């Protein structure tokens, strides 16, 4: 039977909730939406006309999850939804400008922002997506379904950029937007922003009957020394049927340093993770396996976890880009690898997940003393089991070993893949050494163009001019040129470098051909070109390019589509970004 204390707590709670309703603060409804990455899942929502019973199981809120909210329509008053422009990247620090979508329609911006491929290990895609999300900008005009800042914080959390998400979350307050306040609280907790977690930015905790907010209310009252109010909040949780013994222990551990053993956490949230970190406890691999990107980051980074557990956590998020390549290498270097596995590294690696396979092949290559065998191991690692789209990441992980291999005729078969990988890590001179004395041909000429685009210099300019001349003779339409020729000439053309007249004319012809590969629909290309032709739509151009390129980078895009994306980036005043995309596209096998 419900105790008197619990009934009193419920009365207080209902009074607070009613007061909030009187102020037109909508209650959060619906099923959670995953924020923390692919491993976060949402439970089925209860029917709207059947509220859960008081003794039902509590809704499972995993870190990086927010409650879905009814659409908020504001007509032309979108500024009231979005608040003032906030962000950490101004024009002087990589931002895209406060007017980056001032002339863009609101609806496609919201849609594209929600699809932005920040969860990516591709450096061009991830880097440019991050800049869009962190640029302070005026909101586009039009009816709003969600505040853009909510989507931005959500995406940063999904990508594991918790400090960026925390900075954005702490920068503003939006009234009457429970969708935003939940995402904001998640970001503040993950970023460990103690001063903001119990302040005005999380005032929803004082009125919401949701278990997440009640637990945050309880913690904040305990942290402030208000034990009476904390007891009321705790009683309200009991009245809802919420049993969370781990929370009680974590609060005590976090505030007293007691280090008591923590019971199993059945439904961990961002608050549990915050309390664990505040108490100096380890986010274990077992716990991270139940959660999303952020928890796996913490588990992978913590040296108190066993090396194998750190590798397991890192493996789950290796494709997200949340862990930098230097962090991944550090984790790989701590692994103990059996000698029998090293002796047959290629065969064993074929049965492993991506990151353990990379670690095994790298260790075996480092230990190998025979150049041909070392080269074979590096090539196996760079090819990533037939996934060429991961070359930017494998190049970063294996580049140091590749640099140690001296180019020789006996290992020339691996030349194209190794030199492309070296270009991707900025070692153009080392890559060029692999072509010393090579006979002219398409591989050599394409590399000369790639090297000049990646790191222009007088010698490389001269070599590129010779390559353009070779293509003009050998890649004419009647000679059935392939996509590599089209890509090399077309990218050089749209980037505006000097080219012989015949080569530029051929480039225009090849750009106009339809090349094989996954092709966006023609409406998307037209929308991209329209946005690029108008000022005040730079942000939309970037979103549309990222949407076309996708999280896996440009490796399988048709040559003509890649060339068009580079062209519109140049047209939008983003020449450095255009060059980065061109280098990556040309370097892909």
| Radius of gyration, whole Å | 27 Å
What's the number of helices? Answer: 31
Mean pLDDT over the full residue set: 86
* Quantity of strands, as a count: 2
User: Which sequence of strands runs across the widest sheet?
Assistant: 1-2
Question: Rough shape?
Answer: flat
Q: Please summarize the sheet with the most strands.
A: 2 strands, antiparallel
Uncertain spans? 1-79
Structural class based on helices, strands and sheet pairing: mainly alpha
What is the share of helical residues? 55-70%
Strand content: under 5%
Q: In whole angstroms, how far apart are the ends? A: 69 Å
Q: Helix and strand layout, with pairings?
A:
Elements: H1 4-22, E1 32-34, E2 65-67, H2 78-82, H3 106-114, H4 123-134, H5 148-158, H6 162-169, H7 178-190, H8 194-197, H9 211-224, H10 227-239, H11 245-256, H12 270-278, H13 285-289, H14 293-301, H15 307-316, H16 325-333, H17 339-343, H18 345-349, H19 354-367, H20 371-383, H21 391-403, H22 415-424, H23 428-433, H24 442-454, H25 458-474, H26 483-494, H27 501-511, H28 522-532, H29 538-549, H30 559-571, H31 575-587
Antiparallel strand pairs: 1-2
Helix pairs in contact: 1-10, 3-29, 4-29, 5-6, 5-7, 6-7, 7-12, 9-10, 11-12, 14-15, 16-19, 19-20, 19-21, 20-21, 21-22, 22-24, 22-31, 24-25, 24-26, 24-31, 25-27, 26-27, 26-30, 28-29, 28-30, 29-30, 30-31
